[in-house]
Design goal:
It is a multi-pass membrane protein. Keywords: Cell membrane, Membrane, Transmembrane, Transmembrane helix, Transport. Its main location: membrane. By secondary structure, the protein is mostly helical. It has helices at about 15-45, 50, 55-65, 70-75, 80-95, 100-130, 135-165, 170-190, 200-225, 230-250, 265-295, 300-330, 330-350, 360-375, 375-385, 390-435, 445-480, 500; strands spanning about 490-495, 495. It has two domains: about 15-200 and about 255-430 and about 450-500, MFS general substrate transporter like domains (Growth Hormone, Chain: A, Up-down Bundle), CATH 1.20.1250.20; about 200-255. It is about 75% helix and about 0% strand. Strands 1-2 form a two-stranded antiparallel ribbon. Strand 1 (about 490-495) and strand 2 (about 495) form a beta hairpin. Helix 7 packs antiparallel against helix 12 (about 300-330) and helix 13 (about 330-350) runs antiparallel to helix 15 (about 375-385). The N and C termini lie close together (about 5 Å).
Amino acid sequence: MQHKKTASNRPPYGILSVLMIGAFIAFLNNTLLNIALPSIMKDLNIETSTVQWLSTGFMLVNGILIPTSAFLIQKFSVRRLFILAMTLFSLGTILAGFASEFPVLLAGRMIQASGSAIMMPLLMNVMLVSFPIEKRGTAMGFFGLIMMGAPAIGPTLSGWIIEHYDWRMLFHFITPIALVVLVAGIVLLRDVKERSDAKLDFMSVVLSSFGFGGLLYGFSSAGSKGWDSPHVTIALTIGVIALVSFILRQLRMERPMLNFKIYQYPMFALSSAISIVVTVAMFSGMLLLPIYVQNIRGISPLDAGLMLLPGAILMAVMSPINGKLFDKIGGRPLAITGLFITVVTSYFFSQLKMDTTYTHLIILYSLRMFGMSMVMMPVSTNGLNQLPTRYYPHGTAMNNTLQQVSGAIGTALLVTIMSTHAKTRGTELAQEAAQNMTSQPTAEAAAVLKQQIMMQATLDGINYAFLVSTFIAGVAFILSFFIKRATQAEDIISGRSRNEQIIKPQVSNQ
């Protein structure tokens, strides 16, 4: 027997469980791969500029496909989309696990990305239509618990696997789990959906692909190629022109692929602005801290993963707690408190030294993650809560797209800031050392001095990038004071609530 689900009835926990496990596997795969990049470079004999395409290519595919997810969610059922997403993800994982050449590995990663790009907006949309607004914070909190579990165990698990096995074992480890989830989705999901007459505008897809794809490629390449590289300037120019054309086209269309009219709702617009700024600042910790602990301090990948573990666990544990607090007190107090903690801890990270203790790093990173846990999900949920039901697919697609773009911008910006400042400081330190020399050093002493200068310059570059991220987080902190508790905008069509017209996911209770 099947039961129609509405926001006021019992949510489809069966569907949500399967979707969350699928999304968890996709998240875990990403966190597993980061620490494995040096091993992949060595085994496949490739450079840093080449191996970074495993991350850049993943983001490019996400940037191209996520904007189409609003159309896909409206056109197809949850069951069909989930099976498609998990099938693509599983095929990509299998291909990557048996790759002996980099192009094959990259192809596997991009096929994986095509699956995960559908998964996250699909899950978010199902959660939005399954829970009433007064219970949505708690639901999103438990969603955050699942999603933060992957970053909690990913780096540590990856470090252990890399130290004991070949990097391909990371994909072999994921494959059977992904296949089990796929089979579970085929067996358990039984949803019914009205046939939609939504049509995909080909020109919108082209403009979206060149727009978001160009920006992602340009910003991602800037970190390694430099901002004055023709690859970067051409990609960014094409991206900006295509994106502006895409937005103008969507505003003129009666049924747009991605509806930018959602920005007429002030709390959603504010939540997008805060999320973009926080994501840029967040990448300082994710990107700069591993460089510091491994390249400057010489800490092993396993110990580096263990260092990040308490903070990730704390963020995961706090997610459902913050969800319940959001339902009670709203997003503003949480965002203000969380961003204040983020600003303070970011500043302390800008004061790193050569002998900063391991314990100090763990405590500081854990506090930073504690602050972040109070920001991302509450702010995003508050913004989505203001949207009419018919705009949920567009809101989730927009949020996920902006997260990819701002992540690429944050990476490129902070890498460029760090590299530029480190280069400047290296020149200054070399000149100071030359002035203080009383005699010509031996070749061995000169090599040691050069190494010390390089290490100090890198440390200064990392500290400066953290200082910039402190001011970026400060912008989000100021914006958080303008947050108001959102109430859903009216969504009335032909005298009936849109909630009554939308067919919610259905699942067999047998």
